[in-house]
Records
---
Amino acid sequence: MPTCTALIVAAGRGSRFGGPLPKQYALLGGQPVLRRTIEAFRAASAIQAIVVVIAPGDDSHYGAATAGLDLPPPIPGGSSRQQSVLNGLEALAASPPDFVAIHDAARPFVRPAEIAACLEAASAPGTDGAVLGIPLADTLKRVGDANAVTEAVPRRDLWRAQTPQIFRFAPLLAAHRAAASLGAAEATALTDDAAVAERAGLRIVMVEGSEDNRKITTADDLRFDFMETRTAFGFDVHGFAPGDKVMLGGIAVPHGQALAGHSDADVALHALTDAVLGTIGAGDIGKHFPPSDPQWRGASSDRFLRHAADLVSRRGGRIVHLDVTIVCEAPKVGPHRAAMVESIARIAGVAPDRVSVKATTTEGLGFTGRREGIAAQAVATVELPAS
């Protein structure tokens, strides 16, 4: 299988965007645009590695936007987009991939399926690269003095180019090296990597993308309602066993017994984990952390909830609210409620006011009423990019 590295270009300043930060670091749905773009490529199985090119001096912005993503160090960009891409390609040249996907950091809505289709087209025999794009649908007019219409321009065979633009690595690197020697006027005409490749005589094909893969250009582009809300439920139960404390919501609560389970048996975090996994159709906790696997024996359940939250983030989504109800006769949850809220919020990476912890009894009925164990039911609400 051919290897493909994503080279995300985030070195621009976005003069039309305005605002205190370059557009790639502005928040979109509570997350930096660049992070959402990276997460889109992390979700694409066609991509084996991701490298980002940033402007010199943007290291702190980049670090904040990519915290926890475990990416290689960013590549310093140049004075033009073409030079920034060349810098990125040169950084990859020591251990080159078969293909490279050049993508604008300000296009966070690209879908994994579109990336895969573009790579498939670029991989075809006799083809050097492929460009995601949209066929023109609007009527085109050429205008002259005082905006007077002079003619209609046939739109047949005209496309709007998007990114990613995916190329065989070696020919594209050679094309960019050749373009680097051009004069300023000729270099300015090379507005994207396809233009650089075309100048070098490479064969490029178009792949139809979607209107959703739009580019953030102005601050108004951040206000599109592109998210959908999903809600899912989780339930868990654990019986009592000998011990002197129970884990609830990541907090050790003193009690005359412990909860039995393969991990630390935190019934609240287990229910929340299942609820979060349910919002993205990712199965249940047993699928990701099977009790038959000895590595999870005695494991802290905060790892489970954090993993589920990370999966939501990788889909470009965010957790909106978590609600858990703990059902037991004892121990009393009230004295520990605030600590549980803080703990769950920290684990899931949300603000405490997005977490609710409640408790109830079954009025002496059932196994919880007989003090044989503790149950928990949870509801998770997330926002995800609309598909």
---
Amino acid sequence: MMQINQSEYLQWIADLKAKILSSQLKAATVVNTELLKLYWDLGKEISLKINQSKWGSSVVEKLSIDLKLEFPNQKGFSRSNLFSMKQWYEFYQTATVEHQKVQQLVGQIPWGHNLLIISKSKTIDEALFYSAKTIENSWSRSVLSHQIELDFYGRKGKAISNFENTLNAIQTELAQETLKDPYKFDFLDLREKAVEKDIEDQLVQHITSFLLELGSGFSFVGRQVPLNIDKKEYYIDLLFYHFKLKCFVVIELKTNELKAEYVGKLNFYLSGVDEILKTETDNPSIGILLCKSKSKVVAEYALRGMSQPIGVAEYQLTKSIPKNLKSKLPSIEEIEKELSKDEML
């Protein structure tokens, strides 16, 4: 009997498990799509009967009872869920996009996600945006809810930049879409008057939340990354790599209002990154300057003539906090003390 090569067997079984998992995921997707197609059709039928045949909403109660009797082992036919199907269908009724295309998009995300989206979205465009982002990023329902609460749709692509003058057309569109304004760092335990070091400390401590706020495609490279230029060390606040843009992204944090010299300094850093870190397969590096506040005019003037692609946006540290709770937030000294403890462990 031939002896099994253990390492080869482990690799083989791992590959088989991956294929089985992939098959299960595809099957679940197909089931979900078919279920949502049924829900769409039921919602349409209910809407037509109530609005055109003038049967009244009481028909939904009767329909729920009859469907449960006919299909006792199938869930989803409660009165409230049938009304949700009607609401879901009617929400997209005024869509300028073909209903078939809408169905194809919303049919790729779970029913609970769909209900959350239409309950929170003000327009069809906003709802379709969150549907597409859910598919693109595989958002769980809680993450989707978080992104809606933070108004991801309203903030996307709003930062001021010089991308049109420094990047090609494809890169410009993708890079601009990547930026937000303002960025919301409400996951940080900081007072409004935190200094840059404290914000950097906390962003790195909460890197998962920070990456979620930045958006898909970002990978953290390092903090206070040194650049040796003409025998002198310069330090980048935060360095990332963006896999979709295929470039390094330099993020500089400023705890006060935008000043023109901040843009010049970031332009300098980007030149250094392109010279020292960038490879032949990388696209030009991009800079994001995050300030506590900014003047649109100052930002536009400061970006004129800059050779490197830079976006300027504001950030918000906290949501509106009741006055009686503000005193309970940790001070900068308390946070630094806790961080020092962590470093000693």
